[in-house]
């Protein structure tokens, strides 16, 4: 019995020994396999990532796995040495990975040629080939209207087949704790390319002083191109860059917005600095329309800017764009106010000797008519500084004040004439021009029929005053006052019973001589005067004829 138990114990011990040996052998096999994998990984890593990037990335993953394995199996005598070797190798592998990331990104990061950008524009916004101003659409305001619903062809900055490789490289760098390095490489490479793309397009970084020194014609052209460039930058370049960023750092949320913000910061600054320089430059009436054009494009692009530059990292860029929009609105509103004041205080000494429409009148009316092309923009601008008043009534109020300022100025200018008849002719011509222009434009809807009728009466008043003052002396010559007498001989109109009161032939002859002399003098003087509107001129001629001809006929009939 004892011998049986001994045999049982011996059998159990042998079995346990075999199991221990099996476990040890299996553990050894696992360790040996790990060594084999390490050698394979090392060989791939030493070759570098350029030949076979996929195998290189697999080797890095294997190294990471081995480091974790030996860290968890510290009982193995050589585990520390193996871990150190693998860690050093992994560090070298990541360094090579960085180099590969930089080299691959640089290879496919080239400035975009302007022609390629123009190909992505809708037809309505493409520059005319061969024109001297080929970079600038013909009319910024029209361009704004057509661009709102236009379709832009997406711009491809990096080939789609390359992006997954760059994404994998970036992901491994981040996993190795090299997030900052990947950001720096991406930022330094892409930011330069973006800025070079804008420079090739024609974007300049101009200061307030640069802007101030420019001739207006040159500046106006640059503003037109800036509006075009803003649209291209936001709708094509920055949109494409955001897509690259999102795809390359997909799954690495901490990098997406930060990278995009840092890559685009310089380019955005280059664009916005010009807008800021214009908004802060000296105000003048002719700048109002380009300020409105600039304000329009910033409003048009607002939602896209907010979407592209989302997130905390892009906050400064969003605020810069919004700040420019508000500054443009403020400057435009102040320029509008300046214009009203300038009209009232215009001290131009240039008198129109013939009493025709003054250049100031045509300038102001054309200015106001042009403003109506910007009605929706002006209403939006008034809402920026909301004071509780309806934007329609605000626009009407401002327009009325400009018209009133013009009328006040014209009344001042009319006092330069020594002849009061010419004073009234001048005011008649100019106010008639205002009324006619309003009736034929959208201003009529804003100012209303009451304004039109009121000013038509003013025109008629000046016409009547002209007629009364200019022709009073001549009509006096045709009156019978001072010609009739109770005497007989040598009289006219008294011998046939037609008129009991006679008039001296000498007096009549003298009166006709005075009439002819005054008429000739008036004719010579007024032949230098002008009534440019055909209908008004004919109306005035008939009004004078209705008074003068009956008086003349009556005089001749009585004394002739």
Keywords:
Monooxygenase, Tetracycline Repressor, domain 2, 4 domains, 3-stranded antiparallel sheet, 19 helices, 3 strands, Exocyst subunit Exo70 family protein, Exo70, phosphatidylinositol-4,5-bisphosphate binding
Description:
The structure is a single chain. This protein has 560 residues and is an all-alpha fold. It has 4 domains: 25-107, Methane Monooxygenase Hydroxylase, Chain G, domain 1; 114-335, Monooxygenase (Up-down Bundle), CATH 1.20.1280.170; 341-473, Tetracycline Repressor, domain 2 (Orthogonal Bundle); 474-559. 74% of the residues lie in helices and 1% in strands. It contains 19 helices and 3 strands. The chain has a 3-stranded antiparallel beta sheet. The longest helix has 46 residues, at 2-47. The chain is rod-shaped, with a radius of gyration of 45 Å. Mean pLDDT is 81; it is low at 24-32, 130-138 and 494-501.
Which topology of the largest domain does CATH recognise? Monooxygenase
Strand order of the largest sheet: 1-3-2
Query: How much strand content do the residues show?
Result: under 5%
CATH-defined superfamily of the largest domain: Exocyst complex component Exo70
Coarse morphology: rod-shaped
CATH class category label of the largest domain: Mainly Alpha
Low-confidence stretches: 24-32, 130-138, 494-501
Alpha carbon gyration radius: 45 Å
N-to-C CA distance: 180 Å
Query: What oligomeric state do these chains adopt?
Result: single chain
Main beta sheet strand tally, sense and closure: 3 strands, antiparallel
Number of contiguous helices: 19
Number of domains: 4
Give the name of the CATH architecture of the largest domain.
Up-down Bundle
What class do helices, strands and sheet pairing give? mainly alpha
Got a strand count? 3
Helix content: over 70%
Name the helix and strand elements from N-terminus to C-terminus, one letter apiece: HHHHHHHHHHHHHHHHHEEEHH
Mean pLDDT figure: 81
């Amino acid at each position: 019995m004892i011998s049986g138990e001994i045999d049982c114990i011996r059998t159990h011990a042998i079995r346990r020994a075999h199991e221990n040996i099996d476990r040890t052998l299996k553990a050894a096999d696992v360790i040996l396999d790990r060594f084999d994998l390490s050698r394979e990984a090392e060989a791939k890593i030493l070759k570098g990532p350029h030949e076979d990037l996929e195998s290189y990335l697999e080797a890095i993953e294997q190294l990471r796995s081995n480091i974790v394995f030996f860290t968890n199996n510290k009982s193995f005598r050589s585990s520390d040495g193996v871990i150190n070797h693998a860690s050093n190798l992994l560090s070298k592998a990541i360094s090579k990975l960085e180099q590969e990331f930089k080299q691959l990104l640089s290879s496919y990061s080239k400035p975009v040629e302007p022609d390629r950008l123009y190909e992505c524009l809708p037809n309505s916004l493409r520059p005319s080939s061969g024109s001297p101003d080929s970079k600038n659409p013909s009319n910024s305001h029209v361009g704004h209207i057509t661009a709102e619903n236009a379709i832009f062809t997406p711009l491809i900055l990096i080939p789609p087949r390359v992006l997954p490789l760059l994404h994998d490289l970036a992901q491994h760098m981040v996993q190795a704790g090299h997030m900052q390095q990947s950001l720096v490489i991406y930022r330094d490479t892409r930011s330069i390319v973006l800025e070079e793309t804008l420079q090739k397009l024609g974007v300049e970084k101009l200061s307030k002083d640069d802007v101030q020194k420019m001739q207006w014609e040159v500046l106006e052209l640059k503003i037109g191109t800036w509006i075009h460039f803003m649209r291209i930058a936001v709708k094509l370049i920055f949109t494409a860059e955001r897509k690259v960023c999102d795809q390359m750092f997909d799954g690495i949320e901490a990098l997406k917005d930060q990278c995009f913000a840092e890559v685009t910061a310089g380019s955005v600054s280059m664009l916005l600095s010009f807008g800021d320089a214009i908004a802060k430059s000296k105000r003048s009436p002719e700048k109002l329309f380009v300020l409105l054009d600039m304000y329009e494009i910033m409003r048009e692009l607002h939602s896209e800017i907010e979407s592209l530059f989302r997130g905390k990292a892009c906050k400064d860029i969003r605020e810069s764009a919004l700040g420019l929009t508000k500054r443009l609105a403020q400057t435009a509103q102040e320029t509008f106010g300046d214009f009203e004041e300038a009209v009232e205080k215009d001290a131009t000494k240039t008198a129109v000797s013939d009493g025709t429409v003054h250049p100031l009148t045509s300038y102001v009316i054309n200015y106001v008519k042009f403003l109506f092309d910007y009605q929706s923009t002006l209403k939006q601008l008034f809402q920026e500084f909301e004071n509780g008043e309806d934007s329609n009534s605000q626009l009407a109020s401002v327009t009325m004040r400009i018209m009133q300022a013009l009328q006040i100025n014209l009344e001042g200018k009319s006092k330069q004439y020594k002849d009061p008849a010419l004073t009234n002719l001048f005011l008649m011509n100019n106010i008639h021009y205002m009324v006619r222009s309003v009736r034929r434009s959208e201003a009529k809807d804003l100012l209303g029929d009451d304004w039109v009728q009121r000013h038509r009466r003013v025109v008629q008043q000046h016409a009547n005053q002209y007629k009364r003052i200019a022709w009073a002396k001549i009509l006096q010559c045709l009156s019978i006052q001072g010609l009739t007498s109770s005497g007989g001989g040598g009289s006219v109109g008294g011998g046939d019973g037609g008129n009991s009161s006679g008039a001296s032939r000498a007096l009549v002859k003298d009166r006709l001589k005075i009439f002819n002399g005054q008429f000739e003098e008036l004719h010579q003087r007024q032949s230098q005067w002008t009534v440019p509107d055909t209908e008004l001129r004919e109306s005035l001629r008939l009004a004078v004829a209705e008074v003068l001809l009956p008086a003349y006929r009556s005089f001749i009939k009585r004394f002739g």
